[in-house]
Design goal:
One of its GO terms (molecular function) is chorismate mutase activity. A two-stranded antiparallel ribbon has the order 1-2. The longest helix is centred in the middle third of the chain and has 18 residues, at 30-47. The chain has one domain (1-65). It has helices spanning 20-27, 30-47; strands at 3-7, 10-15. The chain is of the alpha+beta class. It is 40% helix and 17% strand.
Length: 65
């Protein structure tokens, strides 16, 4: 199976390439991946916090599960 990728408005023939790294480099954007990693980390910290129901117990720093 031949693979053709459209990049910047022009087609690039990858052929019968089994070079996974080359294909991933052409299909991914490192800046976007880093932004997603930061977003996931921020959400995990937010949703992973212990919720204190009893207000008598007060902690100054966040506690994660």
């Amino acid at each position: 199976m031949r693979v053709t990728i459209l990049e910047n408005g022009r087609e690039i023939d990858v052929g019968k390439s089994h070079d996974k790294e080359k294909l991933m480099d052409m299909l991914t954007y490192p800046e976007v991946e880093e932004a997603i990693k930061r977003r996931v980390e921020m959400k995990a910290k937010t949703y992973g916090q212990e919720v204190i129901i009893n207000m008598k117990e007060h902690r100054t720093e966040s506690v994660y599960k």
